[in-house]
Specification:
The complex is a heterodimer of chains A (about 170) and B (about 240). Chain A has about 170 residues and is mainly alpha-helical. Chain A folds into two domains: about 1-105, RNA polymerase sigma factor, region 2, helix turn helix motif (Rna Polymerase Sigma Factor, Chain: A); about 105-170, Orthogonal Bundle (Arc Repressor Mutant, subunit A). Chain A has helices at about 5-10, 15-25, 30-45, 55-75, 110-115, 120-130, 135-140, 145-170. In chain A, helix 2 packs across helix 3, helix 2 runs parallel beside helix 4 and helix 6 (about 120-130) crosses helix 8 (about 145-170). The radius of gyration of chain A is 17 Å and the shape is globular. Chain B has about 240 residues and is of the alpha+beta class. The chains are: A mainly alpha (about 170), B alpha+beta (about 240). At the A-B interface, helix 1, helix 2, helix 3, helix 5 and helix 6 of A face helix 1 and helix 2 of B.
Chain lengths: ~170, ~240
C-alpha cells in the first residue's frame, strides 16, 4: 500500500477513532491528542501493517494501546500520598471527576452507566456494539481470544444493566 | 429474586448504538493529521555533506590560523615601525624593564645598545623621562627612551642602526615639514603615530598614541623638543 493510499484509507476511520477516544478520555483536548498520536504511530509503522488485514482494527488497537500505556502511566504518577510516596493500592485507571470543567457532560443514564464501567468492559461494548466491529476484530484490538471477548461483552452488559436499574430506581 | 439475565441481550446493544451520542472529529484535527502524514520533500542530498565539509574546513582554518606566518610589511621602514610600536605597547602595558635612571647607567646603556647619547633630552615642563633601556628590535640592538607627558601620554623614542640601504626617500609622500627645518615621515601603525627619520647611519622613531588632529600638533612639538635636544650616534 502506498503512502497516499494508507493516508486516505486511514483517514476514513478518523471519526470512529475520535468517538472511541472521547469515550475513553472524556476530554476533547485529550481525545484529540490521543487520536493524533495514534495516527503518527500508525504512519510511522505503516510498513508493519499487513495488507489484507483490517486497517480499522489495527488503528483501534494502536489507539487503545497508546491510551493504556500513555494515559495509564500518567494516571499512575498522579495518585501520590501526601508524603510523596506512590500509593500502590490506588487503581491504575481513574475516572475523571465529574466536576472537572474539561470533562464532557453525560446527558443520559446510559452514558453515566457506561462511564462507570471498567475500561475493558467499556472498550468491548464500544467496539462491538457502537462501532460494530466483528468479534474477531475486537479480539485483535484487545489482544485476547474471541471467547474472552464474548465473555466480556456478556459481563459488561450485565454490569451495565445493573447500573441502569440503579439509576431508574432513584 | 432478580430476573434472569439474558446473555444474548441485543436490546442493550441496540440502545448503545442508537442512544450514545457520536462525537465527530473536529476539522482542524483532520487537517493537522493529514498535514503530519504528508511526506515532506526530501532535503537536497548534497546539503548535509556540504555543510559538514564547510564546518570541518572552518575548524581547520581556525586551528591553523595562529600557526600561519605573519605577513610582514614590504617596506623595511614600516617593518621597523611595527617593531617599535610593539616595544612601545609592551612598555605601555607592563612598564620598562629598567625603570631607574642614573647618570652612572649611561655608560652601561651605551655599551649594551651600541648607541651613544652624548646629548639627550632629559625632560622639561611637558615631558618627563621615565626610563631608558637597550632594546633588540627586528634583529637590531638599539636604545629606547620613555617619556610621559603632562596629559599622561607615553612617548617612546627609539634609535636603531638603519639597515643597509634603508632610508626614507626625500620625496616620500609621508614626510611632513616641521618648523621649516625637519621633514620626518609620519607613519601610522596599529593605531599609533610615529615620527621616523634618518640620522646619519641611524634610524630614529618617536611613537605615541596621539592620533587626533589636535594631538598631532602636540606630537609635532614633542618631535621638535626631542630632535633638537638629542644626538644619537653609533657607539662603535
Amino acid at each position: 500500500m502506498s503512502d497516499a493510499d494508507f493516508r486516505r484509507q486511514s483517514l476514513e476511520h478518523l471519526d470512529a477513532l475520535y468517538n472511541f477516544a472521547m469515550y475513553l478520555t472524556r476530554k476533547p483536548a485529550e481525545a484529540e491528542d490521543l487520536v493524533q498520536e495514534t495516527y503518527l504511530r500508525a504512519y510511522r509503522f505503516s510498513h508493519r501493517f499487513e495488507q489484507g488485514t483490517h486497517l480499522r482494527a489495527w488503528l483501534f488497537q494502536i489507539l487503545r494501546n497508546t491510551f493504556l500505556t500513555f494515559y495509564r502511566l500518567r494516571e499512575r504518577e498522579a495518585p501520590l500520598a501526601e508524603d510523596g510516596v506512590p500509593d500502590w493500592d490506588a487503581p491504575m485507571f481513574h475516572e475523571a471527576p465529574d466536576d472537572d470543567p474539561r470533562v464532557l457532560e453525560a446527558h443520559t443514564d446510559l452514558e453515566r452507566a457506561l462511564r462507570r464501567l471498567p475500561e475493558e468492559f467499556r472498550t468491548v461494548l464500544l467496539l462491538a456494539e457502537v462501532e460494530g466491529l466483528p468479534l474477531e476484530e475486537v479480539a485483535q484490538v484487545m489482544a485476547c481470544p474471541v471467547g474472552t471477548v464474548k465473555s466480556r461483552i456478556f459481563r459488561a452488559k450485565e454490569r451495565l444493566r445493573t447500573l441502569l436499574r440503579d439509576y431508574e430506581g432513584k | 429474586m432478580s430476573e434472569p439475565l439474558d446473555p444474548t441481550d441485543e436490546t442493550l446493544g441496540r440502545r448503545l448504538a442508537a442512544e450514545l451520542p457520536r462525537h465527530a472529529a473536529p476539522a482542524r484535527l483532520r487537517a493537522s493529521i493529514a498535514e503530519a502524514m504528508t511526506p515532506r520533500p526530501a532535503r537536497t542530498w548534497w546539503l548535509a555533506p556540504a555543510l559538514a565539509a564547510a564546518a570541518t574546513a572552518l575548524v581547520l582554518v581556525l586551528f591553523f590560523v595562529p600557526l600561519l606566518p605573519r605577513i610582514a610589511p614590504a617596506d623595511p621602514v614600516q617593518r621597523l615601525a611595527r617593531a617599535v610600536v610593539s616595544e612601545h605597547t609592551r612598555a605601555l602595558l607592563w612598564g620598562s624593564r629598567q625603570p631607574e635612571i642614573a647618570p652612572a647607567g649611561w655608560e652601561w646603556l651605551s655599551q649594551e645598545s651600541g648607541i651613544s647619547l652624548p646629548k639627550m633630552f632629559a625632560g622639561d615642563d611637558r615631558l618627563t623621562l621615565i626610563a631608558a633601556e637597550p632594546v633588540y628590535l627586528d634583529q637590531r640592538r638599539g636604545v629606547a627612551l620613555y617619556y610621559r607627558d603632562v596629559d599622561g601620554h607615553q612617548v617612546t623614542y627609539v634609535v636603531l642602526p638603519a639597515p643597509k640601504g634603508v632610508r626614507i626617500a626625500p620625496n616620500d609622500s609621508r614626510r611632513v615639514r616641521i618648523a621649516d627645518r625637519w621633514r620626518p615621515a609620519l607613519l601610522v601603525d596599529n593605531g599609533f603615530s610615529l615620527w621616523a627619520w634618518n640620522q646619519g647611519e641611524l634610524i630614529c622613531f618617536i611613537v605615541s598614541d596621539m592620533v587626533s588632529a589636535t594631538d598631532l600638533e602636540q606630537f609635532k612639538d614633542y618631535f621638535v623638543r626631542l630632535r633638537t635636544a638629542t644626538e644619537p650616534r653609533p657607539a662603535y
